[in-house]
């Protein structure tokens, strides 16, 4: 959201229109928030959890070898994703654009896909509903554009830390956050 503030604004407008400003989203709201859902799909396409490059030519693949599909390359195929390096949740308004296969496919598809989708939706939609994320500012240079880099030293993609700012969207949103953080038995 730091690098795509227009996407953040549009998602917040959808959240405010559908839920109002005094309600946090829940899983049952997912179908009523298509832009937020598309935003999450775009995050998964652009930054998949398993970004492996696969070099198989010249190597024997023995019986029983596990093969992992290169979802990083699939999500950047310009035949399916126009301007594949751009973050654009609107691309999924065209139903012919494939959803990224971040949870696998076929019989080997992750059995926890629905839980993962619901968890990601609640987390991301709640953050967007209550906070505004922006580039860090300093007095001499103004806005500092962060460089988004990934660590590729293992099977799982990990974002390197970068500086940004966030603040509650309003006093009402601050109140909602405080109420949601109170644990009641």
TrEMBL record:
<dbReference type="InterPro" id="IPR001128">
    <property type="entry name" value="Cyt_P450"/>
</dbReference>
<protein>
    <recommendedName>
        <fullName>O-methylsterigmatocystin oxidoreductase</fullName>
    </recommendedName>
</protein>
<dbReference type="GO" id="GO:0004497">
    <property type="term" value="F:monooxygenase activity"/>
</dbReference>
<dbReference type="InterPro" id="IPR050364">
    <property type="entry name" value="Cytochrome_P450_fung"/>
</dbReference>
<dbReference type="InterPro" id="IPR017972">
    <property type="entry name" value="Cyt_P450_CS"/>
</dbReference>
<keyword id="KW-0560">Oxidoreductase</keyword>
<dbReference type="GO" id="GO:0016020">
    <property type="term" value="C:membrane"/>
</dbReference>
<comment type="pathway">
    <text>Secondary metabolite biosynthesis.</text>
</comment>
<keyword id="KW-0472">Membrane</keyword>
<keyword id="KW-1133">Transmembrane helix</keyword>
<dbReference type="GO" id="GO:0020037">
    <property type="term" value="F:heme binding"/>
</dbReference>
<comment type="similarity">
    <text>Belongs to the cytochrome P450 family.</text>
</comment>
<dbReference type="GO" id="GO:0016705">
    <property type="term" value="F:oxidoreductase activity, acting on paired donors, with incorporation or reduction of molecular oxygen"/>
</dbReference>
<keyword id="KW-0408">Iron</keyword>
<keyword id="KW-0812">Transmembrane</keyword>
<dbReference type="GO" id="GO:0005506">
    <property type="term" value="F:iron ion binding"/>
</dbReference>
<dbReference type="InterPro" id="IPR036396">
    <property type="entry name" value="Cyt_P450_sf"/>
</dbReference>
<feature type="binding site" description="axial binding residue">
    <location>
        <position position="110"/>
    </location>
    <ligand>
        <name>heme</name>
    </ligand>
</feature>
<keyword id="KW-0503">Monooxygenase</keyword>
<dbReference type="InterPro" id="IPR002401">
    <property type="entry name" value="Cyt_P450_E_grp-I"/>
</dbReference>
<keyword id="KW-0479">Metal-binding</keyword>
<keyword id="KW-0349">Heme</keyword>
<dbReference type="Pfam" id="PF00067">
    <property type="entry name" value="p450"/>
</dbReference>
């Amino acid at each position: 959201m730091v690098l795509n503030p227009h996407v953040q604004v549009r998602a917040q407008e959808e959240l405010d229109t559908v839920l109002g400003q005094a309600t946090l989203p829940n899983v049952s709201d997912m179908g009523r928030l298509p832009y937020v859902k598309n935003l999450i799909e775009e995050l998964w396409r652009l930054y998949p959890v398993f970004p492996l490059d696969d070099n198989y030519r010249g190597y024997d693949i023995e019986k029983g070898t596990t093969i992992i599909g290169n979802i990083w390359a699939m999500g950047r195929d310009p035949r399916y994703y126009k301007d594949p390096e751009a973050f654009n949740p609107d691309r999924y308004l065209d139903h012919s654009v494939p959803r990224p296969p971040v949870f696998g496919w076929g019989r080997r598809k992750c059995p926890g896909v629905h839980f993962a989708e619901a968890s990601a939706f609640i987390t991301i939609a709640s953050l967007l509903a209550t906070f505004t994320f922006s580039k860090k500012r300093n007095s001499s240079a103004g806005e500092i554009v962060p460089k988004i880099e990934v660590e590729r030293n293992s099977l799982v993609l990990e974002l390197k830390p970068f500086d940004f700012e966030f603040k509650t969207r309003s006093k009402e949103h601050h109140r909602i956050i405080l109420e949601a953080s109170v644990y009641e038995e």
